[in-house]
User: Fold this.
Amino acid sequence: MTGSFWNLWYFHIPNFILAVVMYTMLGRVLLGLIMDRHSKNYIWRGFCAITDPFLNLISRVTPRATAPVVLWLFGFVWLFWLRVLLVAIFLSAGLLGTPRS
Assistant:
């Protein structure tokens, strides 16, 4: 079982968490097109609960005049690049092994 999840758990778990937040952010963008921002819908509140901590971080470097949907899209892009950076760091450190040919 050389390709087991547990052999590289230290990479897969943070990558999985970033992926969940990233795709939830995309879902929030799409759902935000048809839902009110202050809706009491439990699905909307779930999306907000998952993505709000990250949005609080990026809102500090984003102008306040930015529309919420644009902020959510920026969040998606930032999370994508964080995942790319995570792979680059682990590859450059030699922690992901060598690519198979």
Observations:
- The mean pLDDT is 91.
- DSSP finds three helices and no strands in the chain.
- Residues 68-92 form the longest helix (25 residues).
- Residues 31-96 form one domain.
